[in-house]
Amino acid sequence: MKRPAPRQGTDPLELSFPSGIDNQANSRNRAAAQAQISRVRRQRLVENLHRLGPAPLFHLLTDLGAGKPVWPTVERYAALPADFIRAYGGDRFPVAVIRLVPRGSP
What we know:
Number of strands: 0
């Protein structure tokens, strides 16, 4: 029994060949592969963020706490040049200056 030809305008993921070969069995594998790719991409973004150091990570968390969208913000920070930031001391917090005041001073 011959399968009917695919209808024009059908979802390209549903039918991938003009012969009408059904590709739905492969779509589950494709979804699993896509999930794995997304997971690995997020891992690489986190590795890049870690290279930036504690100060940029603090600023990222501050932006996320202010309600910025998570993944676009993470991608923006992960794209920053870690070597440049480190060379100019942007990877560290500024030194906290503590001023000691003798007792009895105003």
